[in-house]
Amino acid sequence: MTDKAIITSLAGLDRTELREIVLAVGVPEKQARMRVAQLWRWIYYSGVTDFAAMTDIAKPLRATLAEHYNLARPALAERQISKDGTRKYLIELGPGIEVEAVYIPGVGRSGALCISSQVGCTLNCTFCHTGTQNLVRNLTAAEIVTQIMIARDDLDDWPQSSNAQASRAITNIVFMGMGEPLYNLDNVADAMSILSDGEGIAISRRRITVSTSGVVPQMHDLGTRTQAMLAISLHAVNDELRNELVPINKAYPLKELLNACRNYPGASNARRITFEYVMLKDVNDTDAEARELVRLLAGIPAKINLIPFNPWPGTPYECSSWERIEAFAEIVNKAGYASPIRTPRGRDIDAACGQLRSTSIKKRASERMKERLAAQMPL
Ligand code: SAH
Ligand code: SF4
Predict the structure, then answer these.
(1) To which H or E segment does residue 210 belong?
(2) What is the pLDDT of residues 157-205, one digit of tens each?
(3) Is residue 19 within a helix (H) or strand (E), and if so which, with residue range?
(4) Are 202 and 196 in contact (CB under 8 A)?
(5) CB of 130 closer than 6 A to ligand 2?
(6) Is the C or the N end of the chain the one with fewer CB within 10 Å?
(7) Which of 3.30.1360.70, 1.10.150.530, 3.40.50.2000, 1.10.10.10 would CATH assign to domain 4-68?
(8) Ligand 1 pocket check for 275: Cβ under 6 Å
(9) Which of 98, 100, 276, 289 is the catalytic position?
(10) In this predicted structure, what is the pLDDT of residue 132?
(11) What's the pLDDT tens digit per position in 1-16?
């Protein structure tokens, strides 16, 4: 796909942008609202990729739209399907600019899509591979929304698809892919408005979880603007260790972070905050730390998610042993937190947390090399 095609696609635009477009192609002011409503339903409810399918829009208008615009999604550079049904999508936003989204079946009512908010990440959590990438930019709201559209296309998960009788594949969205969503809050909030709109994709805000490493000044805004469910990448129970693992802790230490959690708008026993805790061998996995974790979270409506560490090439860390994770979980469990271990999914395709993009970069680099070599070969 060319850059021009990305700029001219209506997929991922909000109502204001669509309004500008219908006015630009000559729709009279007083019809604009209705035309936007029609486009919205076709784009976000039905997921059509061709203006010709928009049967309630007059043919000449369909033709004019098709002359200037399209409904293309960013290119799917690669798709991998795991034995356990997990699907990893590598999406090309522009030359050399790639993000990943991962579909995980069996989460929530049906399945969750883990999406990215940035290309790379400016933060440098020591155990996270995304943090080692140096290319970073914020995704636009459209680039966030089209991750869901691409997955719905692939899973045949639009209400009017051939799969219409089947239950929805994607019922939940988690911002746990690449990037720090609270460093791109405006676009994350705009994307959530599109995704939760009842006339379209209609994924309720309480089924959308935003994970942050702890950007305290943005947390309250996230709650008031988006009503998103909150997840915190905690990973350590004292400032000394957290400063090392999650360096943003130096700016916003544990006490401030937990206070911001206590004040998170809408948090309640029915809408708990998830605390993610990556299990790192001999680093943060003792019984004493499990007990401290429980103590720290007292009074906060919380869920605990123990994540087995996913190693990547060159990392100094190892995953805790299974016995250690279970012993840690047992303490957390006894304190009243249910089934806290997150089962690793999609490991055979490197689709789990912290692995995003790592191997695809290598693979794509080697593919590019092959292509370059092939191009130089005489026919
Ligand atoms: N930047 C946000 C969201 C993306 S990371 C954040 O940090 O919360 C999503 C989750 O995966 C975070 O909890 C992160 O700490 C965790 N993670 C990162 N690398 C990991 C790895 N190698 N193994 C397991 N979990 C990892
Ligand atoms: Fe960025 Fe999250 Fe990775 Fe930390 S864990 S480097 S905040 S993506």
Answers:
(1) strand 208-212
(2) 998 766 655 558 999 999 999 999 999 999 999 999 999 999 999 999 9
(3) helix 15-24
(4) yes
(5) yes
(6) C
(7) 1.10.150.530
(8) no
(9) 100
(10) 82
(11) 444 444 489 999 999 9
